[in-house]
């Protein structure tokens, strides 16, 4: 993992094609501190997600994620964007990357031409 990713203000979690967490940056360790933080490296990413998310992730691992999976969540009054996409090796799916970052509740939206 590049140094700038290690300290980025975005949670970055990477898993292999079996769903085993192989990398987490500092922010991901903080976000998932109650579940074990950086100690989750080596654990199953699937165990960290409830249904139906678990099944969706299993499918993404098996088939690859051509365009990724994006959604927003709100927990304890904090809104976040989650984006999951295939980690590629030689152009083929080799696991998943999950990015998670906080967004302001009043985030502006612009339509550009």
Q: Layout of helices and strands, plus pairs?
A:
Layout lengths: L2 H4 L4 E5 L5 E4 L1 H6 L21 H11 L5 E7 L2 E12 L2 E12 L10
Antiparallel strand pairs: 1-2, 1-5, 3-4, 4-5
Structural class: alpha+beta
CATH level-4 homologous superfamily: PAS domain
Evaluate the radius of gyration.
14 Å
What is the C-level CATH assignment? Answer: Alpha Beta
Q: Span between N and C termini?
A: 36 Å
Q: How would you characterize this protein structure?
A:
The chain has one domain: PAS domain (Beta-Lactamase, 2-Layer Sandwich). Helices cover 19% and strands 35% of the residues. Strand 3 (69-75) and strand 4 (78-89) form a beta hairpin. It starts with a helix and ends in a 10-residue tail after the last strand. It has three helices and five strands; from the N terminus they run H-E-E-H-H-E-E-E. The mean pLDDT is 92. It is globular and about 40 Å long. It is an alpha+beta fold and 113 residues long. The protein has helices spanning 3-6, 26-31, 53-63, and strands spanning 11-15, 21-24, 69-75, 78-89, 92-103. It has a five-stranded antiparallel beta sheet.
Provide key terms for this protein:
113 residues, alpha+beta, Beta-Lactamase, five-stranded antiparallel beta sheet, 5 strands
């Amino acid at each position: 993992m590049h140094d700038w990713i290690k300290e980025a203000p975005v949670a970055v979690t990477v898993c292999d094609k079996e769903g085993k967490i192989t990398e987490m940056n500092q922010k991901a360790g903080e976000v998932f501190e109650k579940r074990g933080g950086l100690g989750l490296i080596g654990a199953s990413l699937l165990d960290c997600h409830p249904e139906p998310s678990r099944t969706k992730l299993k499918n993404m691992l098996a088939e690859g994620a051509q365009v990724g999976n994006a959604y927003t969540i709100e927990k304890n009054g904090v809104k976040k964007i989650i984006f999951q996409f295939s980690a590629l090796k030689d152009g083929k799916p080799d696991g998943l990357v999950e990015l998670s970052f906080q967004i302001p509740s009043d985030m502006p939206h612009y339509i550009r031409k």
